[in-house]
């Protein structure tokens, strides 16, 4: 979780308005008080997306609907496995997806 949070922080360092907070056992990165992405245990990336876009993205390798405890989250939340974000280009893809979808929500 810490290594992924460090990578996210480095890639988002030029974005103004990004806030980092511990939430739900992860490191969450927020815009206007709403979670954009989160670094979860095991290097899993939690990504907030538009529900319609999420359905398509969930079919990508290493991506699944996010689960919090015993609850599967809505289509707006995806977990991206650590091997699917092994390099910074792959992680940046997901950060861009989250920012693009957030622009329509926030």
List keywords for this structure.
six-stranded antiparallel β-sheet; 3 helices; alpha+beta; single chain; Aspartate Aminotransferase, domain 1; 34% helix; two-stranded antiparallel sheet; 106 residues
Strand content: 25-35%
Biggest sheet, open or closed, and with what strands and sense?
A: 6 strands, antiparallel
What is the number of beta strands?
8
The count of domains is 1
Strand order, main sheet: write it out.
Answer: 1-2-3-4-8-5
What's the CATH class label? Alpha Beta
* Cα-to-Cα separation, first versus last residue: 26 Å
Structural class: alpha+beta
Whole-angstrom Rg: 12 Å
Number of helices: 3
CATH structural architecture = Alpha-Beta Complex
Helix content: 25-40%
Instruction: Please name the CATH topology.
Output: Aspartate Aminotransferase, domain 1
- Could you report the average pLDDT, rounded to the nearest whole number? 91
What coarse outline follows from CA principal-axis ratios? globular
Give helix and strand order, one letter per element, not per position: HEEEEHEEEEH
Low-pLDDT stretches are: none
Report on this model:
It is a single chain. The model has no long low-confidence stretch (mean pLDDT 91). This protein is α+β, with helices and mostly antiparallel strands and 106 residues long. The longest helix has 18 residues, at 88-105. It has a single domain, classed as Aspartate Aminotransferase, domain 1, CATH 3.90.1150. Strand 6 and strand 7 form a beta hairpin. The chain has helices at residues 2-12, 51-57, 88-105; strands at 18-23, 26-31, 34-39, 45-48, 63-65, 67-68, 71-72, 77-80. Helix 1 packs across helix 3 (88-105). Strands 1-2-3-4-8-5 form a six-stranded antiparallel sheet.
């Amino acid at each position: 979780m810490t290594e992924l949070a460090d990578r996210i922080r480095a890639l988002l360092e030029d974005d103004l308005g990004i806030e980092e907070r511990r939430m739900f056992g992860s490191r969450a990165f927020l815009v206007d008080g709403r979670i954009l992405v989160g670094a979860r245990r095991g290097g899993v990336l939690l990504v907030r997306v538009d529900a319609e876009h999420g359905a398509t993205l969930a079919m990508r390798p290493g991506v699944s609907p996010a689960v919090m405890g015993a609850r599967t989250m809505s289509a707006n939340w995806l977990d991206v496995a650590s091997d699917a974000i092994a390099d910074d280009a792959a992680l940046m893809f997901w950060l861009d997806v989250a920012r693009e979808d957030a622009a329509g929500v926030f």
